[in-house]
Amino acid sequence: MNIKFKVVCITALLSTSSAAFATIVEFQTSQGSFQVNLFDQTTPITVKNFLRYVDQGMYSDSIIHRSLPNSVLQGGGYKYEGNIPLDKIATYTPIKNEPKWSNLRGTIAMAKLPREPNSATSQWYFNVTDNSTSLDPGNGGYTVFGQVTSEQGMAVIDKISNLERCENVPIINYTAEQCNDVDIDPDGSNLIAVNSIVIIDSDPTTAENLAPKANTLIDTQPKPVPNPVPDESSSGSMFGGGLFLFAALARRFKQVQR
């Protein structure tokens, strides 16, 4: 092996290592960008899994597919690639649950199947409010693996959360009344796109000064809430029959992942 080839190999390995341990990522969405500090040291399995999807570009051109008012924003499940119906993101093997931290406002956590604690794959959700009493106890606890780094970042999340919705899907340039008009031609520009998620700081120790709250409610009785919990459900379609933008999707989307 010549020296030039060795240098190339070492550079590639260092680059891969840096990406694998990245701790700050930026969500670049059609409504603005915000940064998230990942909990590399305390939820390593989940962070590694999340970054695997990031490194492969699997979240690029995905959408925010669920918004529950004053509750959560959910994404990481479906991509818009210029066509309707949308494409489901291919997933890797489910990962082990790491329910160390509480579902406080501004945190990001993994979605999973109901009654299956170790079933998280690609989908994540942001806590728009303090969901600790409803989400910390159930399903073995949810893995909170990072938090938004600033109030400016939360302003972007709040902006998306406050948009009009068609059966819980956040949209722009349409009203709730128009959601029932099946004659409107589907247009992906009405979806809230996650254009990309990029690594901006590969130092794995930047979470040391963060102070997430421990989840102390695992396996206690969850507080009843009016909105569904952030689970992946196999018991129905995400979209209703008359929804304008998603009429073609109702037959394809058989699962809801939260």
TrEMBL record:
Transmembrane segments: none annotated. PANTHER family: PEPTIDYL-PROLYL CIS-TRANS ISOMERASE CYP38, CHLOROPLASTIC. PPIases accelerate the folding of proteins. It catalyzes the cis-trans isomerization of proline imidic peptide bonds in oligopeptides. It catalyses: [protein]-peptidylproline (omega=180) = [protein]-peptidylproline (omega=0). It is an enzyme of class 5 (isomerase). Belongs to the cyclophilin-type PPIase family. This is Peptidyl-prolyl cis-trans isomerase. InterPro entries: Cyclophilin-like_dom_sf (IPR029000), Cyclophilin-type_PPIase_dom (IPR002130), E_coli_cyclophilin_A-like (IPR044665). Residues 1-22 form the signal peptide. GO terms for molecular function: peptidyl-prolyl cis-trans isomerase activity. The keyword Signal applies. Keywords: Isomerase, Rotamase, Signal. Its EC number is 5.2.1.8.
